[in-house]
């Protein structure tokens, strides 16, 4: 029983989809650290510069003071003092990170679809080779002038002069 389960697990684990998913998760984790650095080290200072020195990381509201009722200049000070805080600056950083990841994913999928469409162009529909008889609605070859099912004479359109 256990060997059968082990065999089934091994077959599952080495399937292409599982391996692809594992590689995707590993790359996703590495990509997350890059995006976090991009937000923290590039975008946050630029936004801070544009907003007159505002640092989103230290943007918070004190919901309940800590035991000392002191003024907190940074989020770390407030948390160290035991204050309850609403950390909207960290939330804005997370939203910015999400938007960057979503946009990068969009660009990646868009380019993959372009490459796929270039490699596998859509098939064009073949020209019709049959038509319906207007009298009995049976299928007949396109060049036919008489229906083989009802023997009706079909109107022939003359070839266009070229």
Task: Describe the secondary-structure layout.
Elements (H helix, E strand, L loop, with lengths): L1 H12 L2 H35 L10 E4 L10 H6 L3 E3 L1 H32 L10 E3 L6 E3 L21
Antiparallel strand pairs: 1-2, 3-4
Radius of gyration: 34 Å
Low-confidence stretches: none
**Mean of all residue-level pLDDT scores:** 83
Structural class: mainly alpha
User: What's the tally of helices?
Assistant: 4
Strand content: 5-15%
Compact description:
With 162 residues, the protein is mainly alpha-helical.
Describe the structure.
- With 162 residues, this protein is mainly alpha-helical.
- It contains four helices and four strands, in the order ααβαβαββ.
- The protein has a two-stranded antiparallel ribbon with strand order 1-2. The protein has a two-stranded antiparallel sheet with strand order 3-4.
- Helix 2 (16-50) crosses helix 4.
Key phrases:
single chain; 162 residues; mainly alpha; two-stranded antiparallel ribbon; two-stranded antiparallel sheet; 4 helices; elongated
């Amino acid at each position: 029983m256990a060997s059968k389960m082990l065999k089934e697990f091994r077959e599952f684990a080495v399937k292409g989809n599982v391996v692809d998913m594992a590689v995707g998760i590993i790359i996703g984790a590495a990509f997350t650290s890059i995006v976090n650095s991009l937000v923290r080290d590039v975008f946050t200072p630029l936004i801070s510069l544009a907003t007159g020195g505002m640092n989103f990381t230290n943007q918070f509201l004190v919901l309940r003071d800590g035991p000392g009722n002191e003024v907190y200049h940074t989020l770390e000070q407030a948390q160290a003092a035991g204050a309850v805080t609403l950390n909207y600056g960290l939330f804005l950083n997370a939203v910015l990170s999400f938007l960057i990841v979503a946009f990068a994913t969009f660009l990646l999928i868009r380019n993959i679809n372009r490459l796929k469409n270039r490699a596998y162009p859509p098939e064009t529909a073949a020209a019709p080779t049959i038509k319906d008889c207007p009298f009995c609605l049976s299928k007949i070859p396109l060049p036919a002038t008489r229906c083989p099912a009802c023997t009706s004479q079909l109107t022939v359109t003359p070839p266009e002069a070229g």
